[in-house]
Amino acid sequence: MMFFVRAPPSDKIGPYEKEYRPLTLVQKGIGLVQRSVAEGENKDADPNGLYFYMYASCLGAAKFEADLKLHFRITNSTSNETNLPSVDEFREFFLKEYRNRLEKAYV
Question: Cα(41)–Cα(84) distance, rounded to whole angstroms?
Fold first, then answer.
């Protein structure tokens, strides 16, 4: 949630604020993936696309997992009573698929 809401503005400008250069999670992530391409660790031709895939996959999986937990809490049911996977089943599936995708890019 802290990445979705902007911080309130502040009029205080001290030495730290004067030297501060904001760097977003996206900028840092793309930089890391680009560096891995430059160093030959990553064979993916599109570092931006790979990072966007990684970021969106993790964010989407976290949201879906939260929705599953909320659903089971609200309905007071289990995955056996519904067609939905359990939280652990979903997490295991996602991590396996995510690992496979990254192995294709980095191995």
Answer: 37
CB 61, CB 54: distance < 8 Å: no
8-state DSSP, 3: T
Would you tell me how many other CB atoms lie within 10 Å of the CB of residue 57?
15
Judge contact between 84 and 65, C-beta under 8 A: no
Residue 92 lies in a domain: yes
Amino acid letter, residue 58? C
Query: pLDDT value at position 1?
Result: 53
Q: Work out how many domains the chain is built from and give that number.
A: 1
Q: What is the pLDDT of residues 42-97, one digit of tens each?
A: 776 788 888 898 899 999 999 999 999 998 888 887 766 778 888 999 999 999 99
pTM reported for the whole predicted model: 0.65
